[in-house]
Design a protein that fits this description.
The structure is a homodimer.
Chain A: H1 9-14, E1 29-35, E2 41-47, H2 49-53, E3 57-62, E4 85-86, E5 92-98, H3 101-108, E6 112-117, H4 124-128, H5 147-152, E7 160-162, E8 168-176, H6 179-185, E9 188-196, E10 208-213, E11 220-224, H7 229-240, E12 247-251, H8 266-276, E13 280-283, H9 286-292, E14 299-307, E15 313-325, H10 332-340, E16 347-356, H11 370-388, H12 392-399, H13 418-426, H14 429-432, E17 441-450, E18 457-463, E19 469-473, H15 481-493, E20 500-504, H16 521-548, E21 555-558, E22 561-564, E23 571-573, H17 574-580, E24 592-597, E25 605-615, E26 622-632, H18 639-658, E27 689-694, H19 712-715, H20 717-729, H21 740-747
Helix pairs in contact in A: 7-8, 10-11, 11-20, 12-13, 15-16, 18-20
């Protein structure tokens, strides 16, 4: 399929795109948040007098002053104000509202909060122990709206839920087969303790939200760069006690989402607007954003695996801790499922515990939980193959699950193409020639999987009198999905993609859609668009049949014209048919058709990443020389865009592998909360990414065979780099990121 | 059916409604128009230097400076700038653009235009004569987009088009039967020369338009209080040479439409925005608006009619001139059709000539052409009945056309209820007791008809997860049509009207609709809404059937809940079903359904008005004591609103009858171009209007039986008042308005 430039390229390249920071409403006030400098403390007093007295300050608000007063601050991913206690460094405590942004910034420093520190829970292993101090003395609230669920479309369930306690919010266990027999049958057994770090989404746009109140009917109007209109709208309504029809979320251009834009500060901004009865712009600085937002969780996986030289995986045992920060985050299920379901294994025993600490509440980050699961699993498989002395890709091909195979959570895999991408990878020159690698270089492979999300969706396809077709959808375009929707409608109707425009509405006018996350927009909204386009096509043919005096079945649409099959010359332009719908007294109805989708079968995507690295043994410095991402895309609707998604995801995976880390000191203070401390990959660190789009296994459900492509390319990256370093230095670094210190230490161990 | 308060009542009562005058875009300039003070002149020079030099003036633009340069100024109803010639008093000649409205106003007076006057064509009879000077020396341009057609949905056609020439733009002739025999058979023959005046729509909001250009893709965005998004958008695109997809019309609250808001100043405002490459607000003062806008045409009807005492109408001959101002207006057909088609008559010979003069371009005004036709016809019938000494209503009942009878233009009447309303009127106490009228009082009756418009329409009905249903339509709500649409969907789906909201989009996002004119929104968009609501209902039942484990046919919806028929207790709320459509991984699709309508059968409406007047013989002063409007509404969807439409239309009819007139002096200067000169009825002049809603003949096509109700109540008013005055003073005033001078003169003749 031919590609189409993404529709919002121009506005982004020229700076014309409008973010919430660009919104300037008449009478708009500026709000800044006072954040806790401590990870765990009781609040004994908040003195707002000095701040309130500052020139230009309109209000200094604490929890009691907002419509959220009385609500427990355990509603994860929504930053409402703390009341008598703070549980992480960066938790919002008060809000300053001023006439200017400068006055608000000045006033933040004048709010005096008296804290009574309590022992913080910082170390993940310690937190999981029964003797640890508690993050929540009254017991753990499981929270609502977990964002991993949002991403995976409910696929994060399954497994057996076991008793939890202390700081352990959730315990999930997945057991199958005879473990003792599995270990017994193994030719080799490996044991690893693999750690991943806290990673931030690293988007360029710090969170900014504008909220205002319609003076007439009280509707709260929220301008925000959100990944999901409806979910954000629902969060705001729920937290502020409003009817959903009186909350209107107007989506703005998203300056990087990656899972962190499901609604963090929107309820707080809305609460301020209600409190001051007027428009307000709430904005965060870069450093504030780092500590007050929702990074991806750290994990510790203690894994034992056994296999045989003839290619059987006989045992897979894991005890995995996922760090959830101050609130329960819902990631345990997806980590356990993805760890335990990729390969056929005689016996599996996986336990995942979600553990609270006094750190930032965690959120979704591109394929939430999957890179951590893949890092644990793929490093283990790599070590096992080394121990068995077998080809790691051939071993994986031998044990790879296929369509219909059971998953560890007792569901079965829907249509998957894992063996397709493994076969492509095994045949790739980088892999085949890996033995020729120069000294200091190494090649690693890893598999990454993402189940794909689903949510019901609707769309409307409507033709205007000039022959332009409009697709109305409720999705937000953060990854070029609008162009995919255009291409779907173009192919279905038979008109050029240029004649199609996508209309993304606000939460009041848009057709229903899940959020732009979980790689599901093309898959779900795309299906609704396909149905709407098919409806429009049928309407066009019906009118054309009347105009051309032929049966609809005898007609075809090509290049924007309807013609009688096999009767050249007899044709009428689709635009002319569309124009009929606006004629006064006209006898043809306007072209307007709905499409609806409620897919419950997911379309999982597997990726193999092949990475070549070079390690400087003197310094431990790591350079990634090649990164090949081989992905089962089902069908690439817009190949350049799919490649673009792969490039972006792969780079994020490299950052995760090499250097990104939100570091907390022993007091729970985040010490890398800036782009000078939190190191995103620089252009010079990133090789040309080679994206291999595998289309040999189209989705039986996705529109025109497409699968969601956004999340998968990040998943295998950290493991692939780690395996390449293992290959290069002959030793394993069991911890991310692969800093020069750690690599050097392992190389010289 | 129970009524519902109109949805925009609150915003109008509280002043929160937003008109184009309320739009204030960053960097917006203010434009004022320089209007011709002469009715006919050549422009020899325009000196803009003094105006341009004024502080704050940004630009002074003449025709050559705009994208419309080179276009002939014959495009009626769109005020682009004159080039070398002006053809009416009030024609725009130049535009001043300034930083402030004040500077723009000051600069208007500094633009010096040199005019070379030519003999103006002012008198309608003179203009029609072959010897008259010509309004257009190069010949008459028939123009485009005639607004009467817009109103009547193409019903203004028919008849035989005859040769025209000179200032006569259009000649239509309608002939049937043997005229000589018809006149011969008559017991009495009457001859009248009946004149109507130029009437202005008298809306409260002077025309104001804001236009701006999207800096990114060049889309011209127009904020305007329009009756029709799409027509206005198309006019702007056509005149400015833009693709329609790059013109976006955003409809604002309409401060009175009545036919005058189909796009007069939008192309000019758009041209200015393109010329200055930024936002501009073009506004007119009240007096400017009076001369630069589009009043309803004056007419002269010379009628001869014959009838018999036993109730036959034997001959109807008319020569009717309709004054069209400087451009052809397309009213000839509708006047001839409505004059000749109401009553069965042995022989008809009606000629209508549309004649140009050097006056304002005429436009649509509530039932365009119909009050003039009714005035000519109904005064004639009244005089004939007086001559025959028969009851005027009984005579009309005897000759009234019925469903399926031929119209004078060779079509046949679709379903009509003329005899229903005549029978109601004949039985009304005011009519039955009219013999008891006190001295100086009189009672008059008249019939008014309106064919009703049609245009294709589409609608989308969508449920949000909170159970609120949204109706997406492209119509503009100027008369409470949104509430009618709510009520239609409420009845179809089976949910309270409060759970339904109407979304009126802009020209980019709205489903197709004809303009809010011609009394067609409820009839056409209402039908699309009904279909969309039926689709939504079927989707609800399908999901409910699955949830309740029953067949859809066994279910019913009542009061917002679905239940199994005859199985009390087993029910599920519609809102809960709607909520399924937003569940992650959910198996039910969102409720989203389209509806489409392409009605070509009109639903004509007839009204009888009974008016009682009192005339002061000493002064000729006229007082209307009672005004009964008996209207075939098909079915009143929202009775208080239908009554409201009748009240408004009746009052406008009274103004037309008694005092409103845009008076031109012999030079063609409009001399009553202000509300102190142009007299709208005051509250003290208007009696309590009695609206009688006749529902005995529901429309077989309109939603739930409804007919369009907006235009008809104005139609019969002027004739009914004239006939009442005739009754009161024993003499006929053959000219509107019925000023004290004319009434006194007739009474003392």
């Amino acid at each position: 399929m031919e590609g189409l430039p993404i529709t919002d390229a121009d506005e982004k390249l020229t700076g014309a795109a409008r973010y919430p920071a660009d919104v300037d409403l008449p009478g708009m006030r500026h709000a800044r948040v006072v954040l806790s400098p401590l990870a765990a403390a009781n609040i004994t007093d908040i003195d707002t007098a000095a701040a309130a007295a500052l020139d230009g300050v309109v209000a200094v608000l604490t929890a009691a002053d907002l419509p959220t007063a009385g609500r427990p601050a355990t509603d994860r991913n929504s930053a409402i104000l703390a009341t008598d206690r703070v549980v992480w460094h960066g938790q919002p405590v008060a809000v300053v509202v001023a006439e200017t942004a400068t006055a608000a910034a000045d006033a933040v420093g004048l709010v005096h909060v008296d804290y009574e520190p309590t022992p913080p829970v910082v170390d993940l292993d310690d937190a999981a122990s029964p003797n640890s101090p508690l993050v929540w003395s009254h017991g753990v609230d499981r929270g609502a709206g977990a964002s991993a669920d949002v991403h995976a479309g409910g696929a994060a369930g399954g497994g057996v839920e076991e008793q939890s306690g202390g700081n352990v919010a959730v315990t999930k266990r997945y057991v199958s087969g005879d473990l003792a027999a599995g270990l017994e049958a193994a030719d080799e057994i490996v044991e690893l303790e693999l750690r991943t770090q806290t990673v931030h989404q690293g988007y360029l746009e710090p969170h900014t939200v504008v909220a205002t109140v319609d003076p007439l009917d009280g509707t709260l109007i929220v301008y925000t760069s959100t990944q999901g209109l409806f979910g954000t709208r629902d969060s705001v309504a729920r937290l502020l006690g409003l009817e959903r029809e009186y909350v209107k979320v107007i989506p703005m251009t998203v300056g990087g989402g990656f899972g962190a834009r499901y609604g963090i500060f929107e309820p707080l901004a809305g609460a301020i607007a209600l409190a001051i009865e007027g428009p307000v712009q709430l904005s965060l600085t870069r450093s504030e954003d780092f500590v007050a937002s929702t990074p991806a969780p750290a994990t510790i996986a203690r894994v034992t695996a056994g296999g045989t030289r003839d290619g059987r995986l006989t045992a897979l045992v894991a005890d995995i801790l996922t760090e959830s920060g101050a609130f329960s985050g819902g990631l345990a299920g997806i980590v356990g499922t993805l760890f335990g379901s990729v390969y056929r294994c005689d016996a599996v025993d996986v336990t995942v515990r979600e553990v609270l600490t006094n750190k930032s509440m965690v959120g979704a980050y591109r394929a939430p939980g999957a890179p951590q699961a893949a890092y644990a699993l793929e490093c283990t498989i790599d070590e096992l193959c080394r121990a068995l002395d077998v080809d790691p890709l051939q071993f994986r091909i031998g044990v790879a699950k296929e369509t219909g195979d059971p998953m560890v959570d007792d569901r079965t895999w829907p249509n998957i193409g894992l063996t397709n991408v493994l076969a492509e990878a095994a045949a790739h020159p980088l892999w085949k020639n890996r033995g020729d690698a120069a000294p200091g270089r190494g090649v690693g492979a890893a598999v990454g999987g993402w189940p794909g999300g689903t949510a019901p969706a609707a769309a409307v396809c409507r033709a205007d009198s000039d022959g332009v077709f409009y697709l109305h959808v409720g999705s937000v375009d953060i990854t070029g999905t609008n162009t995919a929707l255009q291409l779907i409608a173009s192919e279905v109707i038979g008109i050029p993609a240029d004649d199609i425009r996508v209309v993304n509405g606000d939460s009041t006018v848009a057709p229903q859609s899940g959020p732009s996350g979980g790689s599901m927009i093309t898959y779900t909204v795309g299906n609704a668009v396909r149905d709407a386009a098919e409806g429009a096509r049928a309407q066009i043919l019906e009118i054309a049949a009347d105009m051309l005096e032929a049966a609809p079945d005898d007609l075809e649409i090509e290049n924007g014209a309807v013609r009688v099959k096999g009767a050249p010359g007899s044709e009428v332009a689709v635009g002319k048919i569309a124009a009929q719908g606006s004629r006064f007294g006209g006898k043809y109805a306007p072209i307007t058709a709905h499409g609806r989708s409620a897919i419950t079968n997911q379309a999982p995507v597997f990726t193999v990443q092949l990475v070549e690295v070079e390690v400087d043994r003197e310094t431990g410095q790591l350079a990634v020389l090649r990164d090949v991402v081989i992905q089962d895309v089902g069908r690439a609707l817009n190949p350049p865009l799919v490649a673009g998604q792969i490039h972006g995801g792969a780079v994020q995976g490299l950052g995760w592998a090499m250097q990104e880390e939100l570091v907390f000191d022993e007091s729970g203070t985040a010490v890398t909360a800036s782009f000078s401390g939190y190191l995103l990959p620089e252009a010079t660190q990133v090789p040309a990414i080679e994206a291999v789009l595998v289309e040999s296994n189209p989705s039986p459900i996705g529109p025109l065979g497409a699968r969601g492509v956004g999340e998968p390319p990040i998943v295998a990256g950290p493991a692939a780099v780690a395996n390449a370093v293992r290959d290069a230095i002959g030793a394993r670094v069991e911890r991310l990121p692969l800093t020069p210190e750690r690599v050097w230490a392992a190389a010289h161990r």
